[in-house]
């Protein structure tokens, strides 16, 4: 039996069904609204960056800064949640989300590239908190209900996949003299609404949370944790790597802004739509198998991109990329839940996300330079390297588990 399953059964902090249900709906709705923050940044970041940056090589820097913000703020957000509770961390993230939109609006008004980068850093901080929703919904639940609750909260991203791109499409020309200014103001308003919803989330208090638990190094060296981190990192890195470059690559190949926005919309929907059944698939077939399917689908998405540069090639690439991310990342997240006790959860979950976002930053920084220097095809070929490593890690974890 997994470590956490043994601990949580004896834990007295199981939430009542009504509270758990309320948390699920609040976190799913907040995921839908707050998730739109990331969609807006990815849909506009490279394009606005190309408009404001002093050199084309820095066009994707704002999105890379977004990823740096995620990596830099995961551990502080986890510490905030550990000391003061999840709700405080959620509200702090919402404040960062509001500032993201307001500063970006000012940046495009005055054509300040550096301020736009600051705004995307705060957007990354917001996204780091939003990603903890998937773990927060499992607090106080018995182990058999956790995979499905985790995936249902992520399903809220389907709405984010509609809100984000439509927010961009419907508002980017609203203030004709300053493209995207109204978009970023709308983004800030959505963050306010999400924060109000999150205020009602309740989490159990685990008494040992502040002092108990094993050394973090002992937990991190578990083969199951290593495979979870590698698979989660590869899934998120390649998703970010290709999603960062795709809108700019479409623009470079003569496709319209509207086509790019539509591609991102379907990509985000594909990222979250499978979540309605991913949890059930994990419970039936195991997290390792679902993660492996995600890695395969992500590889197929890159292969589709190699077949051509028409708009439908980009769209199919983005759709398969989204589905692959869902299976790979949720499978990896379910593996993490098997690696810790209740009193260790915030430290272990934060470490997992810190490693994932730190590695993802590397991919994000390199994608813009690779695209401008070598072209879209090289970007696609490079994406296969982390996928091979992830597949090897999953096989190794399976072999170790069979020998144990």
UniProtKB/TrEMBL annotation:
Keyword Membrane: yes
Protein name: MFS transporter
Segments forming domain Major facilitator superfamily (MFS) profile: 188-404
Signal sequence, start to end: none
GO molecular function annotation: transmembrane transporter activity
PROSITE patterns reported for this sequence: MFS
SUPFAM superfamilies with a match to the protein in the record: MFS general substrate transporter (SSF103473)
Transmembrane segments: 27-51, 57-76, 88-107, 113-137, 149-168, 180-201, 221-243, 263-283, 290-308, 314-339, 351-372, 378-400
UniProt keywords, alphabetically: Membrane, Transmembrane, Transmembrane helix
Superkingdom of source: Bacteria
């Amino acid at each position: 039996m997994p470590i956490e399953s043994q601990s949580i059964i004896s834990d007295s902090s199981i939430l009542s069904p009504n509270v758990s249900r309320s948390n699920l709906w609040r976190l799913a709705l907040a995921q839908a609204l707050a998730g739109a923050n990331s969609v807006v940044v990815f849909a506009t970041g490279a394009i606005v960056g190309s408009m404001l940056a002093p050199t084309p090589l820095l066009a994707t820097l704002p999105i890379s800064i977004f990823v740096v913000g995620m990596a830099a703020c995961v551990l502080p957000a986890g510490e905030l949640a550990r000391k003061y509770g999840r709700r405080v961390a959620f509200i702090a993230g919402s404040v960062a989300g509001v500032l993201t939109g307001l500063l970006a609006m000012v940046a495009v008004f005055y054509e300040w590239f550096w301020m736009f980068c600051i705004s995307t850093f705060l957007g990354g901080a917001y996204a780091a908190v939003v990603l903890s929703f998937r773990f927060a919904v499992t607090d106080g639940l018995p182990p058999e209900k956790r995979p499905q609750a985790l995936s249902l909260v992520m399903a809220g991203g389907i709405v984010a996949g509609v809100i984000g791109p439509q927010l961009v499409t419907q508002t980017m020309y609203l203030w004709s003299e300053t493209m995207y200014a109204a978009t970023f103001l709308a983004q800030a308003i959505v963050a306010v609404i999400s924060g109000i919803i999150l205020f009602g989330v309740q989490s159990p208090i685990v008494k040992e949370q502040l002092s108990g638990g094993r050394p973090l190094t002992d937990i991190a060296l578990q083969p199951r944790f290593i495979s979870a981190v590698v698979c989660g990192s590869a899934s998120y890195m390649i998703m970010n790597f290709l999603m960062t470059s795709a809108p700019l690559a479409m623009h470079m190949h003569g496709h319209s802004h509207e086509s790019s926005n539509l591609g991102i919309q379907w990509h985000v929907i594909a990222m979250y739509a499978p979540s309605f059944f991913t949890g059930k698939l994990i419970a039936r077939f195991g997290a390792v198998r679902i993660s492996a399917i995600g890695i395969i689908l992500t590889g197929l998405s890159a292969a589709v991109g190699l077949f051509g540069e028409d708009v439908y090639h980009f769209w199919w690439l983005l759709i398969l990329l989204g589905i692959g991310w869902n299976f790979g990342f949720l499978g990896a997240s379910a593996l993490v839940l098997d690696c810790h006790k209740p009193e260790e959860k915030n430290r272990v979950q934060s470490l997992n996300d810190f490693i994932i976002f730190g590695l993802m930053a590397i991919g994000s920084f390199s994608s813009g330079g690779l695209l401008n220097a070598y072209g879209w095809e090289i970007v696609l070929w490079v994406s296969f390297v982390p996928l091979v490593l992830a597949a090897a890690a999953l096989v190794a974890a399976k072999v170790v588990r069979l020998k144990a």
